[in-house]
Amino acid sequence: LGTSFQVYYNKIDGWDEKAAATGIPEDSWRISALFYNDYKHGQIKPTLFAMYDPEGTWMTQASVEYSPDGQWYYKLTQMSFWGDKDADSSFAPLIGTSELSLRAGYRW
C-alpha cells in the first residue's frame, strides 16, 4: 500500500486590508493524505485521497482504475466536500456537493 502525506502552508507577504477585503486569508494550512495500490499486476488501481483544511472543511476523493490490457483504461472517480459551510476556507462554498465521473482512454 503506497502512502503519501503532505502539510501545506501558504503565507502571503505584504498581506493587508485590501487582501482581507477580497476574502484571501493571510495564512492557510492544508493537510493531505494519499493511499494507493494496484492489484492483478497493475490492472486494478484503487486510490483514496483526503485533504483537510484546519478551518473545518474536508475534500475526499476515491477512485478505481481498470486496465484490462495495459492500453485501454476505465476510471471511476468520486469526489465530495464536507464540513462547516461558514468556515473561512476555499472549500466552504462546496460543502454538501459531490461529483462522480467516468473516464475511458487509450494509452499509445
Task: Walk me through this protein's architecture.
There is one protein chain. The chain has 108 residues and is mainly β. Helices cover 5% and strands 56% of the residues. It is built from one helix and six strands, in the order βαβββββ. A six-stranded antiparallel beta sheet has the order 1-2-3-4-5-6, with no helix packed on it. The longest helix has 5 residues, at 17-21. It is elongated and about 55 Å long.
Q: Which keywords apply here?
A:
single chain; 6-stranded antiparallel beta sheet; 6 strands; 108 residues; 1 helix; elongated; mainly beta
- Note the total helix count: 1
Spatial ordering of strands, largest sheet: 1-2-3-4-5-6
Query: From the structure provided, what is the oligomeric state, counting identical versus distinct chains?
Result: single chain
Biggest sheet overview = 6 strands, antiparallel
Global shape: elongated
**Radius of gyration (Å):** 18 Å
Sheet-strand content, in percent, reads over 45%
Mean pLDDT: 88
Question: Would you list the SSEs in sequence order as H and E?
Answer: EHEEEEE
Distance between the termini: 28 Å
Helix content: under 10%
Weakly predicted, low-confidence segments = none
Counting helices, strands and paired strands, the structural category is mainly beta
- What is the β-strand count? 6
